[in-house]
Amino acid sequence: MKIAVNTRFLLPNRLAGIGRFTHEILRRLTVKYPEHEFYFFFDRAYDKQFIYSANVKPIVVYPSARHPFLFYWWYQVSLAKALKKLQPDIFLSPDGMTTLNTTVPRVTVIHNLAYEHYPQDEDYLNRKYLNYYGPRFAQASNKIIAVSVFTRQDIIQQYNINPDKIRVVHNAAGANFRKVNFGQQVAIRQKYAHGEAFFMFVGGLQARKNLINLFQAFDMFKLKTGSEVKLLMVGGKKWSGKGIKEAYNQMQFKSEVIFTGRVSDAELIQLYGAAVANVYVPALTGFGITVVEAQQCGCPIITANTSAMPEVAGNGAMLVNPLVVEEITHALIQVYHDLEVRTQLVQAGLQNASRFSWEHSAEKVMRVLEEVLNTQAKSRAPV
């Protein structure tokens, strides 16, 4: 089989979300199936670490797609020409976008439809592009992979897609996400939290991540407990969405909020291992990989009772209504003060995380590719 793949998100030291899914799936498929040829389409110079095996052929297709005008050109012109020249058996796109100008069968991975629900997280041109092309990409794809049952239902409702067209393939946490020893916990607290205990949030500073309520809840927690606990915001410090920066600036205890910037996987694992809890209470998310990563590291979870979170967190988390600040505050206090609660959350979280496996997810992706090709072969077979 000749498999073409959109690998735009395979960027060194930036494997978050889409990039993580792409990396974890492809590095398993390429090694497990040496009989297949994989053609990786990059939109810029690539890092050799992503050429996982001898059956991977990298192809750079310009221009680099960094804003909507270039998105259009890359997918609808440059990529379409490259596919026509290569004539692969199938095209896999893990970033939710694809080309409309090809006869090659297409499988598209959709992680969420956040831009439909929280347009304020996107700039004007991105929003217009995604609103126009999102449903067209979904309709043009032979099969869609959704990363959660919640996302599958959202695609069906938003874009009126036949449910039979969508398969669910979950994210997972890498095997390197595991418990750390006490010495590592002490060291990471010293480095990032001035030696104090801390809650942590992992992700972008976006409206749908519900950060305004998180900041308010942390303020209330500090007022009610008088503790020295910090709140670590792990990820790039780029404010996206109205009111988030203002809410932070209005905090009474904003000096207790620490922005770490991007961290390596090794440090992220240590942060999970040392945290009082990972507090991830989004108003909407397609999966929330940080929850499974933290659970696998033995970190208690406080998360939302909405969107994909109950599906992903299972019984291994304290669920709260993300729109009620008092509920988030109560959860922070309860997890901080009650060792028994923390212990129960850790044990249940470890059990829940075991449900997810990149090996299993990679195999499901291969089954979808084979399903599409088998359907194509049957449709071309003489009657």
From TrEMBL:
SUPFAM superfamilies: UDP-Glycosyltransferase/glycogen phosphorylase (SSF53756). CDD domains: GT4_MtfB-like. GO terms for biological process: lipopolysaccharide biosynthetic process. Residues 17-172 form the Glycosyltransferase subfamily 4-like N-terminal domain. It comes from Adhaeribacter rhizoryzae. Residues 190-349 form the Glycosyl transferase family domain. GO terms for molecular function: glycosyltransferase activity. Keywords: Transferase. The keyword Nucleotide-binding does not apply. This is Glycosyltransferase family 4 protein. The lineage of its organism: Bacteria, Pseudomonadati, Bacteroidota, Cytophagia, Cytophagales. The keyword Transmembrane helix does not apply.
